[in-house]
Specification:
- The chain is mostly helical.
- The protein has two domains: about 100 residues, no CATH class; about 230 residues, Hypothetical protein af1432 (Orthogonal Bundle).
- The chain starts with a helix and ends in a 12-residue tail after the last helix.
- The relative contact order is 0.08.
Length: about 350
């Protein structure tokens, strides 16, 4: 009988649990499971003719309050089993951090805590590199929506996006989103040196994440969000200068590529694409749906042909769904406001 009860508890919990994002939801699952388990326990005992007949045939039934004794037994049996289920839920809630640490997994609860804006790393990023922080928030929003579209882990993608550029806080002024209009630190550097500074933010970010004991899956986002892509601007600049020089040496692409690895999961691939299109969309003079669609198509095709999606399991159909979601999100961000007659330009 205990086996039947345990099976009911397991099935009920598995069906009800879903993706728990609050501790109150966890307690609700415990209460619902407890009710189901209690009813299963009573029903199974009734079928085999063990518990209920024992109550009905007792001397208590002959007494005036016989049925009251039976109902008391029924209520007590339900409460006994139900309380254990609720206590199990409370125990799981308290033990989650230990379980996650031992098995190297993250629940939605821990991801929500990790993605809190008060996290020390996110606060430092907002203070030292406000442009990068704003970029990360926008990328997180559009990447989560795109990941959900293909059935990937949207919340994990969002939290990974929050932290993907934390390495930029060491040299924020070398990244365009933090630069003033007339102040470009790269003007004083050779293209090869500028590339080293740009690429270094990946390793710096991964090292910083490990120092703060961020989960491995978040570190993976940091290391993979650029894959092995080419730092095109500085590569073209280096090639141009080389052609203008007397010796005209061939410039190797290898020195201007990120070290990788390429995205290993669909979530990392979505973040890579969302990161690129969000940055590129800021350069559009008058962003509209058609121009954003063209931009997203161009960037996605370039990364596809460059082999950046070869190791992540992302299908062409899913890539199209991701592109559509990104265009929809970017269009919503950049949509024009309706102008009314006599309204001053804001």
């Amino acid at each position: 009988m205990e086996f039947v009860t345990l099976c009911a508890a397991s099935c009920a919990t598995a069906l009800l649990v879903g993706r728990i994002r609050t501790r109150s939801r966890l307690i609700y699952v415990g209460l619902a499971s407890g009710a189901i388990v209690a009813l299963t326990h009573i029903g199974a005992d009734t079928i085999v003719g063990r518990a209920v007949p024992a109550v009905l045939e007792s001397d208590a039934l002959a007494a005036t309050g016989g049925w009251w004794h039976y109902l008391s037994w029924l209520l007590g049996e339900s409460l006994r089993v139900g309380v254990f289920a609720v206590l199990a839920a409370a125990l799981v809630a308290g033990a989650l951090p230990i379980i996650e640490k031992i098995f190297g997994v993250q629940t939605d609860l821990s991801l929500l805590e990790l993605g809190d804006a008060s996290h020390p790393l996110l606060r430092q990023l907002a203070q030292r590199a406000p442009g990068t922080y704003n970029h990360s928030i926008n990328v997180a929003a559009i990447a989560e929506a795109a990941a959900d579209t293909i059935g990937a882990h949207g919340l994990l993608t969002r939290v990974g996006a929050y932290f993907h550029d934390i390495g930029k806080m060491f040299k924020p002024n070398y990244f365009v989103e933090n630069q003033d209009a007339n102040d470009n630190c790269h003007d004083a550097l050779q293209p090869a040196m500028s590339t080293l500074v740009i690429i270094a933010h990946v390793k710096d970010g991964a090292d910083l994440a490990r120092q703060h004991h961020l989960p491995k899956r978040i570190v993976d986002f940091i290391e993979q969000h650029h894959g092995t892509t080419l730092v095109e601007y500085f590569f073209r600049e280096a090639s141009k200068r080389s052609q203008e020089a007397a010796n005209k040496e061939e410039v190797s692409e290898t020195a201007f590529r990120y070290p990788g690895p390429k995205p290993q999961t669909r979530e990392a691939a979505v973040l890579m694409l969302a990161d690129s299109v969000e940055s590129a969309s800021r350069t559009l003079v008058e962003p509209n749906a058609a121009r954003l669609q063209s931009l997203v198509d161009k960037i996605a095709m370039k990364k596809l042909l460059d082999g950046q999606f070869d190791e992540c399991g992302l299908t062409l159909q899913q890539l199209e769904q991701v592109k559509s979601s990104l265009v929809k999100s970017l269009t919503a961000i950049y949509h024009g406001r309706v102008k009314y007659s006599g309204q001053a330009t804001a």
